[in-house]
Amino acid sequence: MALPRLLARALHRAAAVSAPAAPDFNSFVVRTNTCGELRSAHVGQKVTLYGWIQYQRQGLFLVLRDFQGLTQIIIPQDEAHSHVKKLLSNAPVESVVRVTGIVSPRPPGQENPKMPTGDIEVKAETAEILNFCKKLPFEIKDFIKKSEALRMQYRYLDLRSLRLQHNLRLRSRVVMRMREYLCNLHGFVDVETPTLFKRTPGGAKEFLVPSREAGKFYSLPQSPQQFKQLLMVGGLDRYFQVARCYRDEGSQPDRQPEFTQIDIEMSFVDQAGIQRLIEGLLQYSWPEERGSITTPFPSMTYEEALAEYGTDKPDTRFGMKIVDISDVLRLSDIQFVQNALSYPRGTIRAICIPQGVRYLKNKDLESLKESAKSQFNQEIMEIIRRPDGSLKSLLTKFLGKKQQLELIQALNMQVDDVVLLAAGEHKQVCSALGSLRLLSASLLEAAGLALRDPTAFHFLWVVDFPLFLPKAENPTELESAHHPFTAPHPSDASLLHSDPTKVRSQHYDLVLNGNEVGGGSIRIHSAEQQRFVLEKVLKEDSEVLSHLLEALELGAPPHGGIALGLDRLISLIVDAPSIRDVIAFPKSFRGRDLMANAPDYVTPEELEPYHIQVSWPLEEKEAKKN
Amino acid sequence: MALPRLLARALHRAAAVSAPAAPDFNSFVVRTNTCGELRSAHVGQKVTLYGWIQYQRQGLFLVLRDFQGLTQIIIPQDEAHSHVKKLLSNAPVESVVRVTGIVSPRPPGQENPKMPTGDIEVKAETAEILNFCKKLPFEIKDFIKKSEALRMQYRYLDLRSLRLQHNLRLRSRVVMRMREYLCNLHGFVDVETPTLFKRTPGGAKEFLVPSREAGKFYSLPQSPQQFKQLLMVGGLDRYFQVARCYRDEGSQPDRQPEFTQIDIEMSFVDQAGIQRLIEGLLQYSWPEERGSITTPFPSMTYEEALAEYGTDKPDTRFGMKIVDISDVLRLSDIQFVQNALSYPRGTIRAICIPQGVRYLKNKDLESLKESAKSQFNQEIMEIIRRPDGSLKSLLTKFLGKKQQLELIQALNMQVDDVVLLAAGEHKQVCSALGSLRLLSASLLEAAGLALRDPTAFHFLWVVDFPLFLPKAENPTELESAHHPFTAPHPSDASLLHSDPTKVRSQHYDLVLNGNEVGGGSIRIHSAEQQRFVLEKVLKEDSEVLSHLLEALELGAPPHGGIALGLDRLISLIVDAPSIRDVIAFPKSFRGRDLMANAPDYVTPEELEPYHIQVSWPLEEKEAKKN
């Protein structure tokens, strides 16, 4: 009869090994438990807890808090413990204390089912105040309501909040799982690349770092792009890095001058290979409490995304897609319609806002139209479907019954729906309607219509981007849609010489709930093709990239990669309004550290080794004089 | 009879789970195997390999290389495969190819037992040249002999070497294990802290980063010291980060302007707690092929280290300790001895070089003495024990028989040993002898004496450092021996007010084979004590640290931490001569990137947004003019 027991034990061991054990938070320290750990099973044990006083009442009890939870501590009232009572009664809220005592069941009826430790309390026997808290600059309870500037100034107090503790710990956990997937399961090598580098040609957004050689500067790169490609040339085969990146954009809401990307590059891989890798990565690292995600992710071409959603990062959690109604209206006798359709890429398109009549006020509709006008220079016409089924619009008098019916069918218009219609050039029309689609979705939700499931995560690949775009300042010249190392689509490679504007790229974006959370490409690995793109298409001086071109000549393998924007990804997972909520010490939108006051003035002597001096703007010069 | 089989299966599963599976290097790509993978068991399989041509011989066979190894490819000779033969015969060495073929046993007698894949070869059926390699700037075989500057310029070629592949992959693996230990086993949170920060007072070694606000600069911090302490105030409890740090020291051999440290901080911990944590961390992450390390590590006070090894980072792999012979010589009638002993910390000390007569030449001994003179301004006297047991030295005529015998016993002098003796002030004498100890060990080893086991790893804690040191430029003023946040030793706290020079700190260094690989401390958590240290002892303006002082007032827990120098640690593990051998893209010792040529000049227009201009040194101004 020994075998079954042995079997059970063996199976138990197998299970114990496969389920990762919880971390031991009490190793290397004196505490026996965290403040979130004690249950009825611990009753009778002598425990030592460390934490912050969350609340204290009339010298009778207090609530002790640490990163894991809250525990109720009963303050002893007998004469023998009068010093303990005195200590604990007089310590201000947020003071740091050690308490040793016995775990006891709460008196019947006083259990708190909302509190994980709500079945027990700890009867304090000894206590020590490790640090008194001076008067707080505000009540912690009201902290969340304080201005963000104040919360940034006292970031260490904000970090004690449940919300930030949760966000930062989840971030750490997700990144750890990503590392396990990449490193342990798929043989990627974590390689640290330099951040003091050479300025990228046209790298206007790169911070400069003066060196001790007069006139020479390092640059903080926006990504390890060149290095990761050189690692492939160096035979590293599979590289990843949780990479710190820098971007100087001046003041930008919800951008940070330094940010983090999960940076990945592989040799001998194609687009599908990278996509399957990333789907597996996200599935593996996805936090359990956020449900599961299904793979493969759907995919959409850039052209489809623009046509149906008016953007290259569609929010596919809801419908309201853009509908092409050019054919419905083509035969009508409407001036602006005919006008629009006469242009090469002229089109008539519309979105249908469900129940718009009931959920949107007139001023909402006006503001939508104004926004299209001011942001996209696009006129919008509205059509409403009345309760009797008929259409109300300035257009209707120009449309026959049949056309009206076709319109209703094409847009699937129900009673009380509102249609926004735009006519003009394809990209402008789609972009304007794409923007209105998102704005009206927010308006509908604000008015109480449940449109997007707040717990849903819709991943989407957007592919087949154009390789080049006309420059904004001079449309006869081309620039890279992403970066000059992106490989052309294999089917379009011959167009590179004849009509580069028509070449699609092997770039892919990963979109989550309408946010770009990643992007990458298969890279050019032929020196000849890379030189052609730089010199002939982009008309750039290839000399500054001579080291890369030379590397491609000396045995560069085909390779490709991707980078995921970690801050954005985590903020979407935890449903935070800003990436500042998933960064321990974020900068303000002006790029300032409000806690330590950075950036700050330095003395001319400190600038001397770097051979630079400040060019003061005139008014500041004057102010300094006075 | 089903049970035993079930049992076996369960046990097998348990074993399979507990032993981490090897990573799958062939996921997401077309290759079936890496070039290091095929064995006799694969014979008959059709495989697809990707790699670099390492070697090709007369159109008969070639050796294909990737990160995992080498595989011999047989080039087909029959007419039907003539195109394959043509392709593979004409591709230059280091070209990138795909080969598909059948795994076959090598003909008897042609197996290569030195090659892991030496039992098989792959008979190529199809092949593709993915990238031709142009003429290499030098033969790869000779690369190791080339100048380091050339290897840095073509770093991507150097990265293909077995040596660098091994170093970078081991580094990645060790860091991954460290993360598992910290994050998964002990509940540490990986938190990324900013690198664009405020200048530390007196932070002369910090790189500056100009901001878009005129005259204001960020600084790249030398470590996340302030942030990690603020995380503890924020209740994060256990923090770690593989942190990028910056240090501008101008030209320094074997220093890098950016480097990496394993940065750790814990709340509610004492010195012993941090030490046990680090011992466990290193034991857990230690690469198997380097043997195992035993814990706990030995510990030594700063005073002991200085007295016995003449340094705060003793190499304990060998003896030759410094011996105090003051008492032996005290009664002698030697002028310089009496002179030295008359000073407050006067001492006579010596080291004994085993078999020095046989292994050291006269010029070696002269150079040792000269180095003590030039570096430490310390005179050295030598004593030799002759084959007949007697002593030969300028000293002997002043010493009686008994004194000579005492000297021989105190230093355990054998025949042919050489003793180097120094008299003077304690610290100077010990430092000079400590330096001579290391120099003579290298000389002995160069001459063929096996002194230090090259496979041995001797970890050592050095503790009880002084908290403050006299400033070099003005010894009446004090500066922090490490940094101003280090807590005083609990037994010495009262001395802080009466005699700060006598206060020992709660700082600890981790030393490996005579190299400092880590350092940390328990920090001051009392705002009052921190303010006293800054204002009264160090006479610094505490205003620049007001945010930290305020944080200590608002519920800072007791805390401490450590940082391990990752580059140095890994270079010692792989026995690399320089940290440049464990960094993918290191800078030269002048801080230059020789591959991309950074730092580099930028245009005045690029400096404009940052309100700075270059102050050209005069001669450069002149050169620019001409």
UniProtKB/TrEMBL annotation, chains A, B:
Q: Which superkingdom heads the taxonomic lineage of this protein's source?
A: Eukaryota
Aminoacyl-transfer RNA synthetases class-II family profile domain spans which residues? 168-599
CDD domains reported for this sequence: AspRS_core, EcAspRS_like_N
Query: Gene3D superfamilies from the entry?
Result: Bira Bifunctional Protein, Domain 2, GAD-like domain, Nucleic acid-binding proteins
Q: Which InterPro entries match?
A: Aa-tRNA-synt_II (IPR004364), aa-tRNA-synth_II (IPR006195), aa-tRNA-synth_II/BPL/LPL (IPR045864), Asp-tRNA-ligase_1 (IPR004524), Asp-tRNA-ligase_1_N (IPR047089), Asp/Asn-tRNA-synth_IIb (IPR002312), AspRS_core (IPR047090), GAD-like_sf (IPR004115)
Its Gene Ontology biological processes? aspartyl-tRNA aminoacylation
One family from Pfam that matches here is: tRNA-synt_2
Write one Gene Ontology MF term. ATP binding
Q: Which UniProt keywords apply?
A: Aminoacyl-tRNA synthetase, ATP-binding, Ligase, Nucleotide-binding, Protein biosynthesis
The GO cellular component terms are: mitochondrion
**PROSITE patterns, A to Z:** AA_TRNA_LIGASE_II (PS50862)
Return the similarity comment.
Answer: Belongs to the class-II aminoacyl-tRNA synthetase family. Type 1 subfamily.
Stated name of the protein: Aspartate--tRNA ligase, mitochondrial
**Which gene codes for it?**
DARS2
